[in-house]
Design a protein that fits this description.
Number of strands: 12
Order of helices and strands: EEEHEEEHEHEEEHHHHHEHEH
Oligomer: single chain
Bound molecules: zinc ion
Number of helices: 10
Helix content: 25-40%
Low-confidence stretches: none
Mean pLDDT: 97
Radius of gyration: 20 Å
């Protein structure tokens, strides 16, 4: 069977891999700077060149490749193959015909998918979601992305916009979210929201190792630094992860009631905190879900790491 290319269009780097979609093996991976400031036409030219380069570097020819999948960080119109709003890229790419342009430049069929739906598809096919038919993924990083697989199918909704779990509301009077709404999960438990809790604790003068680790420089506080403090038993740091996990747990409880997932997968940079984040999510589900058999819902960390997206979106292109 032909191999497929999976691409991760990031704000900093463009990553492209030749993937064996039958077993999820990444055969060859290349990464170049996105140079997003140079505009979408330059970025699309660079992408097309990268795809042709990675085919060559993998020792293959264009005829060995069945197609290209591109994981895109933002809102898409899958029916038209256009980008609608990419908040992390300059110019935000309104109505850019990404799918047709890459097809024209490479001569290969191209498919688009949101970046976290790509991760969801990868984890479902070959990672932490393998073997079950209904999962929810929370990708906790700079924002909170999401994705759903329901009854053995990646859930898309209108133009592929379904599955934005970071923008489910956990307090309708809550703080403003980047999307323009109030009280979204992302405003409470994303990486920046966790860092902000650490900054508040230090500036309030609470006794915490976070202050020592950041050497009283608030700009150095990150979710990783707070996790490091929590690992040594620092109560303030532990409490911050308790809160973040509680908030994600509330959103996850709503998802349990909606789709009855077999597994909830926590991905993204903040998921590196592991048990610090997973334990309060599990506890919140147990306390707050009574309408379905929540003891059968597993809460686990993602398995494929940085390759989940390129694996997932190459499988998407092949499907
Ligand atoms: Zn939002």
């Amino acid at each position: 069977m032909k191999k497929f290319i999976g691409c991760d269009l990031g704000g900093t780097n463009l990553r492209a891999a030749v993937v064996d979609v039958e077993n999820g093996d990444v055969l060859h991976l290349m990464s170049i700077p996105t140079l997003a400031r140079e505009g979408h036409d330059t970025v699309m030219d660079r992408m097309a060149d990268l795809f042709l380069d990675v085919i060559k570097a993998a020792g293959m020819k264009k005829k060995d490749i069945g197609g290209i999948g591109i994981g895109v960080p933002g809102v898409l119109d899958l029916e038209k193959g256009e980008t609608l709003f990419l908040p992390n890229l300059p110019g935000t790419w309104p109505h850019v015909p990404l799918q047709d342009t890459i097809t024209r430049l490479t001569g290969l069929p191209t498919a688009l998918l949101n970046d976290v739906r790509s991760i969801t598809n990868g984890e479902w096919r070959f990672g932490a979601g393998r073997g079950v038919d209904t999962i929810a993924v929370f990708a906790v990083g700079t924002g909170i992305g999401g994705g759903l697989v329901v009854n053995g199918q990646l859930h898309l909704g209108i133009g592929g916009t379904g599955g934005e779990l970071g923008h489910t509301m956990i307090d309708f009077n809550g703080p403003r979210c980047g999307c323009g709404n109030n009280g979204c999960l992302e405003a409470y438990a994303s990486g920046p929201a966790i860092s902000a809790m650490g900054m508040k604790a230090v500036s309030q003068g609470l006794t915490t190792k976070i202050a020592n680790l950041c050497e009283y420089d608030l700009n150095r506080i990150t979710p990783e630094l707070i996790a490091e403090a929590a690992e040594t038993g620092d109560e303030v740091a532990e409490e911050i992860y308790e809160k973040a996990g509680y908030y994600i747990g509330i959103a996850a409880a709503n998802i349990c009631a909606s789709i009855g997932p077999r597994r909830i997968i926590i991905a993204g940079g903040v998921a590196q905190a592991g048990k610090l984040l997973l334990a309060p999510i599990r506890r919140t589900l147990k306390e707050r879900v009574h309408i379905m058999p929540v003891e059968q819902v597993e809460v686990v960390s993602s398995k494929l790491g940085d390759n989940a997206g390129v694996i997932g979106v190459s499988c998407w292109a092949a499907s």
